[in-house]
Amino acid sequence: YDDRDGKIWMDGKLVEWRDAKVHVLTHALHYASSVFEGERCYNGKIFKGVEHSQRLRKSAELLDMEVPYTVEQIEEAKYAMLRANGWTDAYVRAVAWRASGEDMGVSAKRNPVRMAIAGWEWGAYYGDAKTKGAKIDIAKWKRPSPETIPVAAKAAGLYMICTMSKHAAEAKGCSDALFMDWRGYVAECTGANIFFAKDGEVHTPLADCFLDGITRRTVIAMLREKGVTVHERRILPEELEGFQQCWLTGTAAEVTPVGQIADYNFEVGALALDTAASYEKLVRA
Ligand code: PMP
């Protein structure tokens, strides 16, 4: 995958895909001093691009790093990368990390922060689950307390247990894993937020210890605009049995209905499908 044609924006300029490399003594590789974004470009326009660039800079700040580019410069860079590859519809991955430098240990203030933006063509994140409903496992790991790690950052360190949990889920034939949080409340999946519906009303976990996704906020606003009641609240795993519909939201996942979480079944119903359709319309508007 490294050795292919294409362009990647790196530290202020477009480089060949196969030349976009870092050194093995990169601080981020050893200590997870890395933040990133996942975005989607539809018909030549990145959906909520500015919000993503702002979040990247915010995530870095939470890790005591400063992205050496402004939001405007990041926006320009993303479109330059897309144009250089000839894409109007693509997934966009921006990443900023502490590089190798004078400091080889945990403390690394003198090492520069570097940044890259790559992209690729990426279809439905959960494959045919968009129509059939995804099958979700329950992760054995928990989302940590905000006193343990900066949970609002989209930071590499928060994804270690995501990869482990997603591998475990896939080994059981599931598409993803649902985390409980450190208190035992329902939290999120490894790369998407979760929503439930019951008797026409929508319930979603309060984003107080996991990523408050841009798609999550978009979907909440969309539903409220339609007059649907949305409860952001603490949800216990025992409640899963009583919900009728469920769906996931995320930039990559978009809105994907869920058919099953562990032994609980959900109908791929009108509210889930309508929300998915409205989101699809909105991102291309
Ligand atoms: N939670 C996690 C852990 C994620 O990786 C993502 C994807 N960025 C989300 C939620 C959804 O966030 P967004 O809607 O901003 O893509």
UniProtKB/TrEMBL annotation:
Write down the required cofactor(s): pyridoxal 5'-phosphate
Q: What pathway does the UniProt record associate with this protein? A: Amino-acid biosynthesis; L-isoleucine biosynthesis; L-isoleucine from 2-oxobutanoate: step 4/4; Amino-acid biosynthesis; L-leucine biosynthesis; L-leucine from 3-methyl-2-oxobutanoate: step 4/4; Amino-acid biosynthesis; L-valine biosynthesis; L-valine from pyruvate: step 4/4
Query: Could you tell me which InterPro entries the record lists for this protein?
Result: Aminotrans_IV, Aminotrans_IV_CS, Aminotransferase-like, B_amino_transI, BCAT-like_C, BCAT-like_N, Class-IV_PLP-Dep_Aminotrnsfr
> What GO MF annotations does this protein's record show?
branched-chain-amino-acid transaminase activity
Please give the catalytic activity noted in the UniProt record: L-isoleucine + 2-oxoglutarate = (S)-3-methyl-2-oxopentanoate + L-glutamate; L-valine + 2-oxoglutarate = 3-methyl-2-oxobutanoate + L-glutamate; L-leucine + 2-oxoglutarate = 4-methyl-2-oxopentanoate + L-glutamate
Q: What is its EC number?
A: 2.6.1.42
Keywords assigned? Amino-acid biosynthesis, Aminotransferase, Branched-chain amino acid biosynthesis, Pyridoxal phosphate, Transferase
| Alphabetical list of Pfam families matching this protein | Aminotran_4
Against NCBIfam families, the record matches this protein to: ilvE_I, PRK06606.1, PRK07544.1
Protein family membership: Belongs to the class-IV pyridoxal-phosphate-dependent aminotransferase family.
**The protein's role, per its UniProt record:** Acts on leucine, isoleucine and valine.
What is this protein's name?
Answer: Branched-chain-amino-acid aminotransferase
Gene source species: Ruixingdingia sedimenti
Lineage start = Bacteria, Pseudomonadati, Pseudomonadota, Alphaproteobacteria, Rhodobacterales
